[in-house]
Amino acid sequence: MNLETKTETKQLDNLVAVQSVTIDEKFALPPSPFGLELSNGLDDTPEKRNEETKDNDGIEDLKGLDEDDEEESYKFVTSDNKTFELEKEAVKLSKLADTMIEGDVNEKTLPMPNVHSSIMEHIVKYLKYHAVNLIPENNSPDKLTSNVFSKNIKCDWDVNLIENDVMGDKNTAKENLYSLIRASNYMDIQPLLQLACTKVACMIKGESLDAIKKIISTDEPYVDNHKEVL
Q1: Are 78 and 116 in contact (CB under 8 A)?
Q2: 52 in a domain, yes or no?
Q3: Which of 56, 108, 112, 160 lies 20 to 30 angstroms, CA to CA, from 207?
Q4: Beta carbons of 112 and 78 less than 8 angstroms apart
Q5: Is residue 63 scored above 90 in pLDDT?
Q6: pLDDT number for residue 195
Q7: Does residue 230 lie within any of the structural domains?
Q8: Range 18-48 burial, b when 16+ CB lie within 10 A, else e
């Protein structure tokens, strides 16, 4: 290599070095006021891109988990056009409602034209509770062991629902109980139906025919002759 060629090569190297310094200065970023390390995007190597892809995949996976955790909600619409919102696990305790949502997965509004809101209020309360708290096995007995309702039912919460919520007002107690039986049968909620029927059985157990007629009549106010004495 002659002297002239060496000189040209050295000049070219100096030019490249100057260009590199200029580029670095041009894209240099000021220190972050929050103490964060800022990037100018010039370190976009294949390894860096792979790391970012893994990080993004992790974020997407977390977002997917959040979406799966969101519980579907549905609305019961009663005969008097009132709505009650509850989650899928509660809805599925009604076989009628479960059949409706299985038949049309996009349907979120479930009409219940045979159930009044005054009774649906108790039903929804029952469904929501037992969607979280499992119904005890054989909660309602096949054969009464006593005419005291609470002695036949394993779940104390269920006893309170019937005796204090559904039948809290003695003037409407029996009508409410019978309406609950009809609604539970219509919505196909067998444990609730058995619960309400057990209450009726306790009311008339051991009574004479004439007494039974009076006990079940809605013309007579409800009197609990078999309430447990605490």
Answers
A1: yes
A2: no
A3: 160
A4: yes
A5: no
A6: 97
A7: no
A8: eeeeeeeeeeeeeeeeeeeeeeeeeeeeeee
Q: Residue 17: enclosing H or E segment and its boundaries? A: helix 3-26
Yes or no: say if 147 and 219 are a contact pair by the CB < 8 Å rule.
no
Q: Give per-residue pLDDT as tens, 8-58.
A: 555 545 544 444 444 344 434 444 433 334 444 444 455 555 555 555 555
- Measure the CA angle with vertex 184, ends 183 and 187; round to 5°: 85
| Number of other residues whose CB lies within 10 A of the CB of residue 10 | 10
Q: In 70-208, where does DSSP find H-type helix?
A: 88-91, 95-103, 117-132, 156-160, 173-187, 190-204
Type of residue found at 113: P
Whether the CB-CB separation of 97 and 132 falls below 8 Å is answered with no
- Is residue 120 in a domain? yes
SS3 state of residue 86: strand
Looking up residue 172, the CATH number of its domain turns out to be 3.30.710.10
The number of folded domains in the chain is 1
Instruction: Tell me if 226 is assigned to some domain.
Output: no
Q: Are 173 and 162 in contact (CB under 8 A)?
A: no
Residue 73 φ/ψ, nearest 5 degrees: -120, 150
Q: What is the pTM of this model?
A: 0.69
